[in-house]
Design brief:
The chain contains 26 helices and 26 strands.
């Protein structure tokens, strides 16, 4: 090796070290001679005897001390064993601990401290005392990295020696002793430093191999990801694009490299991207955030995307913001369709009651002055429409309702809002009203148009008339509901007059309200006298058409008014509070029938019961259900409560808490008429819903090969939520075939059996072989 300049730290340290060793040798011999002279003087009886004796003691001490330092250092174990342990270490800290333990075990060496450290500023990772830390700092600042020979440094108490652990190593082994370090110890340290250098390089190689393997795995994951993955810098420029960008955005990775991320979105969303990236840079590394944007594909088409970002600017391996783009177009489309369905009638496409009421309230808020009679509401009800369904079936009935809706729309102006409120009831909101004459002429034109003959199917011609009630805004109208209620009262007045007529609201028409109160009183009496009946409709497995459950429907055999179906009295029950005792009566009667069938061995099915919003949210509802189940000794898992999506909207947190409480007991929950309410996907995902019942408005179009996308979306959503999809109102084999193709598992409808009394339902359950039947007589339903 070429000699270093005399001014190097290593040379200076060595030059300081050699004279000290020579001086110690000379001083020792001088002390010995002085000691002999002192002995001679003592024998001669000279006065210097005392001094000579002291010199003898000093010389002996000096010799003894130097002999101990020169004593041979013997390592505690073999070099091979030490090398194996150093090479087996998984970190530099572990290697340093092995070296320190080894040196500390040498019996002839006085170790102050040692460190295996990179030549950088000292931190707290070595855990040395303050004095040792200061000494190590001074050594590291003075060591020559190009010098592979031992470099000595004088300490305040003792000596330190440093070894560079190989030409390619960044580490230095420094050992400090409270005494001068012997040559054999220096040699042993050199061997240890060489081994440590090899081990450090091996650790670097292992780390590089691990990093390359991780990078390879990352590349594979990124390559096959369904999301487009980018790395952008702080300015939003794309520095890396994964191959998956082609599948998502139709662009090659090289085409987007170096361009701003804002160029991938529609122009109006570019400011949102810039703001999003700025917010991401404020996040911690392990946090992420998302935003919904519209992206432009290479062919110019647009997709709805979800942009997610994580701040890895401080990560030395990434040094950027990692963003992913997920194509959520299908999800957004389904949400839009469900949102549209929540505010529009699924059969006719008109506004539903919720949207109509919202627009009416808004129109009343912007009323120009007290003398303005607008807005006005027209309430239309089809006369004897029930006969259409009874004579030709619901398929023709639905076709008739769609035809009526089209005819109403054809008679209106652009500013008017038509709506289907439910069943065969329609409404029109008139926001620009010149005078009553024009109003009545418009309503009469609607009724005349609706009454024109219409063809159902291919050759069935029917005529449907309608009655209408009109209510205009005035000073004493308190709310939108009040105005709508007045129009409803006027419509009933028109029917009383002989149907096919128009009636304008008058205060005397409150008699209609009186009639509704009478109906409510009769219903209350019927509930108390247990006069209501419960009919049942089978729910089947669509693959095998085997019965797996039944749904309970209430019927009222009113002796004075004739048999009443639910639409004839449930609205009265809901508005008067009778829904609570009515619902309890239905559950009690249904469980009584189930228990009687179970006693003869028929129990292999579940019972579904509809529950109104008012009943479900009643304080005693859960207690009532539990008491009835216990009274009839029926397992809670055999009961499914059907609620509508609007229960979640009205009930809020109370509804969610009750749902969780009921399902914890084992009771099932189904969302009835799914898709016609206003529940959000986020809300549904957090609730324990076991079934989604697909409303007939989604099922009926399947017969004509329409509406499969939305129906498929609901089936897929049920699967995502871990629930079952149950199709309602199946009336034709083509609908059944379409539902099977969509993967819908369960269904009900007149194709499998119309709602029937318990006496008619029992033979169907027996025929389905749901359980062994004893020889006893058929149970008498309650």
């Amino acid at each position: 090796m070429v000699d270093e300049p005399a001014s190097s730290p290593a040379t200076r340290a060595a030059s300081r070290h050699t004279p000290v060793r020579v001086f110690d040798s000379i001083g020792r011999w001088v002390a010995v001679i002085a000691c002999l002279l002192a002995a001679v003087c003592a024998l001669a009886g000279l006065p210097a005897a005392t001094t000579a004796a002291t010199a003898v003691l000093g010389a002996v001490g000096t010799v003894v001390a130097r002999v101990k330092v020169r004593a041979t250092v013997r390592p505690h174990r073999s070099a091979t064993a030490l090398a194996d342990e150093i090479l087996a270490a998984s970190s530099v800290q572990e290697m340093e601990a092995v070296v320190r333990t080894e040196i500390a075990s040498w019996p002839k060496f006085a170790l102050s401290w040692c460190a295996l450290a990179p030549v950088v500023a000292l931190d707290d990772s070595w855990g040395l005392p303050d004095q040792g830390a200061e000494e190590l700092q001074g050594v590291l600042l003075s060591v020559e990295l190009t010098e592979l020979r031992p470099q000595f440094f004088a300490l305040a108490a003792g000596e330190a020696v440093a070894f560079v652990c190989g030409a390619e190593s960044e580490f230095v082994l420094v050992v400090a002793s409270s005494r001068w370090i012997s040559d054999d110890a220096v040699a042993a340290f050199g061997e240890i430093a060489a081994i440590a250098g090899v081990a450090a390089r091996q650790l670097d190689l292992d780390a590089e191999v691990t990093a390359r393997r991780a990078a390879a795995r990352f590349e594979e994951l990124v390559h096959f990801s369904s999301d487009a993955i980018f790395i952008v810098d702080a300015a939003g420029i794309i520095r890396y694009a994964a191959p998956s960008v082609t599948a998502v955005l139709g662009r090659l990775s090289v085409d987007v490299d170096g361009i701003p991320l804002t160029e991938l979105v529609v122009p109006e969303h570019a400011p949102d991207v810039a703001s999003f990236l700025a917010n991401v840079q404020l996040l911690e590394a392990r946090n992420s955030t998302s935003i919904a944007l519209r992206f432009t594909r290479a062919d110019g088409s647009l997709i709805d995307g979800e942009l997610t970002g994580a701040n890895l600017l401080d990560n030395r391996d990434v040094r950027g913001i990692v963003v992913t783009v997920r194509d959520v177009s299908s999800r957004v489309e389904l949400e839009d369709q469900l949102r549209h369905q929540a505010f529009h009638d699924g059969l006719t496409g008109l506004a539903n009651r919720a949207l109509f009421r919202d627009r009416l309230e808004r129109s009343m808020r912007v009323r120009r002055d007290p003398t303005d009679r607008a807005p006005a509401v027209v309430y239309i009800d089809l006369d004897d429409f029930k006969s259409i369904n009874d004579s030709f079936g619901h398929l023709y009935g639905d076709q008739a309702l769609r035809c009526v809706a089209e005819r109403i729309v054809g008679c209106l102006r652009g500013a008017d809002t038509p709506a289907r409120l439910g069943g065969d009831e329609f409404a029109i909101l008139l926001e620009e009203l010149p005078d009553d004459v024009v109003l009545l002429e418009l309503v009469q034109r609607v009724l005349d148009t609706v009454a024109a003959p219409m063809t159902l199917g291919t050759d069935t011609v029917v005529t449907i008339s309608a009655s209408a009630g009109v209510a205009t805004c005035s000073d004493d109208v308190s709310s939108a509901d009040d105005l709508l209620r007045r129009a409803d009262i006027a419509m009933y007045r028109a029917k009383v007059r002989g149907k096919k007529q128009v009636a304008h609201y008058e205060s005397a028409m409150h008699q209609v309200v009186h009639d509704r109160l009478e109906l409510a009183a009769e219903l209350d009496a019927a509930i108390r006298a247990h006069e209501l009946e419960v009919h049942y409709q089978p729910i089947v497995d669509l693959t095998s058409t085997h019965i797996v459950g039944i749904e309970a429907f209430v019927r009222w055999p009113n002796t004075s008014r004739g048999p009443l179906r639910p639409p004839d009295f449930l609205d009265v029950a809901e508005n008067t509070g009778l829904a609570v005792p009515l619902g309890a009566e239905v559950i009690r009667r249904a469980l009584t029938d189930i228990a009687s069938w179970r006693d003869v061995g028929i129990d292999g099915f579940v019972l579904s019961v509809n529950v109104s919003a008012r009943q479900f949210l009643h304080d005693d509802f859960e207690t009532m259900v539990c008491e009835e189940l216990a009274a009839h000794d029926i397992d809670p898992s055999r009961l499914i409560l059907e609620i509508t999506e609007n229960v979640l909207t009205v009930g809020g947190g109370v509804a969610e808490e009750r749902l969780r409480s009921l399902t914890a007991l084992g009771i099932g929950v189904a969302l009835d008429d799914f898709g016609t309410g206003q529940s959000s996907l986020q809300t549904l995902q957090s609730l324990p819903v076991g079934q989604l019942k697909i409303d007939r408005s989604f099922v009926a179009p399947l017969r004509d090969g329409e509406g499969s996308v939305l129906a498929q979306g609901i089936v897929d959503l049920a699967l995502l939520l871990g629930a079952s999809a149950v199709a309602e109102g199946i009336e034709h084999p083509d609908e059944l075939a379409a539902l099977r193709a969509l993967g819908c598992g369960l269904g009900q409808g007149n194709l499998f059996g119309a709602p029937s009394p318990a006496s008619d339902m029992f033979p169907m359950l027996v025929a389905a072989k749901l359980g062994p039947v004893s020889d006893q007589a058929t149970p008498t339903p309650s």
